[in-house]
Each structure stands twice: as C-alpha cells, then as structure tokens.
Amino acid sequence: MLAITNIDYGNIISSICSIKVAPFLLISIVLTPIIIYYEKRYSEPIISIKLLNDRQMVIILVLSFFVGMGIMAMAFLPQLGENLLLLKSGQGGYLVTFLALFSLISSPLAGKFIDKYSAKKVLLTGISFNIIGYVLIIFIATPYNNIYAYFVALGFLGLGVGSTIGAPINYMVQNHAKPEEVVMAQSTVSLVRSVGVAIAPNLLISIFTSKLALAMQNLQSVIPKFTTSATKTIETFSSQDKEMLSKALSNTNLDVSQIDLSPLSGSNATNIVDNISTIINNTKEIVLSNTPDNVHIMINEIFTNYQNLLIKTSDDITKNLATSINSGYHNMFIALLLISVIAFGFTLLVKEKK
Hints:
Elements: H1 2-6, H2 12-16, H3 22-41, H4 55-71, H5 77-85, H6 97-116, H7 119-144, H8 147-164, H9 167-176, H10 182-209, H11 212-222, H12 239-250, H13 272-289, H14 296-312, H15 314-349
Helix pairs in contact: 4-9, 4-10, 4-15, 6-7, 6-8, 7-8, 7-9, 7-15, 9-10, 10-15, 11-15, 13-14
C-alpha cells in the first residue's frame, strides 16, 4: 500500500525505481512466498491456500479483488458532484442518495435473477452498468461539466452496485468450492475483496493528486497580478514616503506569482477566491505592521483595489480550478473503468454450474 501511495502516475517508471516505492515493492515480493509457506502449515489459515489449486476459485478470488476496488468509486462520487455543481464541501453526500435509490432497486432484483438465470449473467450485467456509468463520467460529465450526465451515471452505477456486491460472487463460491470448504472459501473471498477496498483509495487518490500540481500552476495564470498602480493617494505622497512604501512592498512578496499558495491546496472551486482573499489580507497585515502610519492609507487603498480586481476575476478563477479538478477525476474514473473491464473479463472466465 505504501508503494502504491508513493507512485507518481505522471512518471510511473522512474517513480517505481525510486526509494519511496522500490523498497516496499521488494519487501512485498519477498514476504509473499513466506506468508504462503506458513499459511499452508496451519489447519485454520487466514487464507486457504488450497483454493489456489482450483483454477475457478483463483478466478473468483481475482474477480472479488477487482470488485472490491470498484466499490471505492462510491467514496469519490460526492466530491465530484460538489465540483460539478459548485456545492460547499460536505453537501455532495446528498447527491449520492440518487445512487442509493437505484441500488435499492437492483439489489433484490439481482437476487431474483440469479435463481432465474445465473450469478455470472447477473454479475456481467452489473459490471456493464458500472462501465456505462464510468463512460458517462469520463466522456461527458467531467470534460463538459455536464451535471445531467453525472446523475444518469449515478443511476447506472447504483444499478451496478446493487448487482455486483455480495450475492453473485458468494453464489459462485458456493457452486465451485467443495462443500467442506465453502465457509473457508467465503471468508477468503471476503478478505481478498477487503484488500481491494483497502488498496483502491491509495491508488485512486494518487492518480487524482498527480493533477493537483498542474492545477496550481494553471491557477497562477488566472489570479490577477498585484500592482500598486491605479491609486489616487500616491499622488499626494512625498518622495521619501513613496520610497518607504516601495521598500515595504518589495519586502513582502506582493507579486502573486511569488506568494506561497500552498495553503490553497485544500481549496475547492467554491472557496478558492475566499482563500486567496484571506492570503492577501494576511499579507496586508504584515505590510501594515512593518510600515509607518503615514503610509497606511495608501496601503489600504492598494489592497482594496486588488480585492476588487479579485472579485471581478472570481468567475474565471472558480472555473479554472473546477476544470483542473475535473481533469483529476477524469483520470481517476478512467482507472475505475479499466478495473471494471478487467473484472468483466475475469467474470467471462468463470464456468457456470447447473
């Protein structure tokens, strides 16, 4: 998990060879056969190694791992909705109620159709619903900021979640495991699925954050540059006061391209302008504390002009950050789409038993 978290998905090959990733990958490779060796020696192992001798059970285990990874898409859908609708942080949870409604409908139907058709067909249908949802998010919702596509995608993902989690895979295990190993097989499948659930957030967040650095660079291009021009008070200043003011300003990094914007890394499209304003106000207080009272009027006027300019460009700043964040989600859901395609492929390999 540490290796996956530290991978830079914008530069995969070099990051895998880096000291932040390579040692952890090496440790996991070395420990895996050791764990298998000791698990074979226990009568009640955590993972039933015997299941690995059955090709169909191996396929089901791999399938459950990827289904577990896909479950974590639900954790990021609220934030995506907040960014698309420009909602305040925390309000996106209400949007996912739409997904839960469709999941509530599909879950009992999935159980009924398993008996009528087969677990394999139900699981393939559910994964297909997920794939359709991801395609809508990747090709319509995120690139075009299309909220309608987002809600349609939620509907398909709800149908997919209700059709894939739990019943189909458990039914497959019962069909393929030996009667005396069903309980152990079920617990092993559940464990493997949990591993997928645990690994997925690190992978998906790493993919998402690989775009954040670029988002901050793009943001610099639309934030208005700080200037001391267009002020009336400066005309009344003496040469000595102007020199003092110029010196004070030059010592406070008022060029926005040089101001530390790292506090903005936790910002979203709804609060980015307010957070920039806070940084500028804090800078103003620093300037005021380092200048004599006779230039404070001038300083206040300079900062007031900048805040007005910030308000005028607020829409551009908000849209720029929202677009950059959308690109991060775009890449994240491409990864989820690939995970679903892999799960679909492994489902096709499962043999049906009548």
